[in-house]
Amino acid sequence: MIRKVRSEDFEDVLEIYREGMATGIATFETRVPSEDGWDRKFHPELRFVYEDGGKILGWVSLTPFSARNAYRGVGEVSVYVKHGAGGSGIGTSLLRHLEEEARRAGYWTLQAAIFEENTASIRLHEKCGFRIVGVREKIAMRDGVWHNNVLMEKRIVE
């Protein structure tokens, strides 16, 4: 079941985020945020978890792309699935749910910036209708290694 994130989900959400961080190809962040930091980063009405049998197996959220009014309908997606639960359709369900909710909230374009090595995430986004619009080469360094970022987007309104 997909539902909005509640405060009691925070530890499970962060554990899934820690798992993503440990891969070295899910985020450039090197420290797990506090609950307050995580709360400030993501749109309060556009963050959801996938729950099954009382366990949180994934989460998705939207970050506004820019504070500029011209970009008010553009958001960057973050989607994370618990280690061992990948390939089960959870990521697809979460992204599709976020798309519907973002459209209702007035967003018109969703973006994703994905490590080039994170082929599973690139495939997930392509499956959900995102297209590659570019690659930022050696855009950032993590653990002493330069990484490329694949830029993907999906227009969600006509």
| Pattern of helices and strands | EHHEEEHEHEE
What is the total domain count? 1
The CATH superfamily bears the name Gcn5-related N-acetyltransferase (GNAT)
Q: At the third CATH level, what is the topology name? A: Aminopeptidase
The description of the largest β-sheet is: 7 strands, mixed
What is the arithmetic mean of pLDDT?
92
CATH architecture: 3-Layer(aba) Sandwich
Strand order of the largest sheet: 1-2-3-4-5-7-6
Number of strands: 7
Distance between the termini: 29 Å
Q: How many H/I helices?
A: 4
Q: Which CATH class applies here?
A: Alpha Beta
Low-confidence stretches: none
Radius of gyration: 15 Å
Question: Any overview of this molecule?
Answer:
Helices cover 28% and strands 36% of the residues. It has 158 residues and is of the alpha+beta class. It has a single domain, classed as Aminopeptidase (3-Layer(aba) Sandwich). The chain has a 7-stranded mixed beta sheet with strand order 1-2-3-4-5-7-6. β4, α3 (90-104) and β5 form a beta-alpha-beta unit. The model has no long low-confidence stretch (mean pLDDT 92).
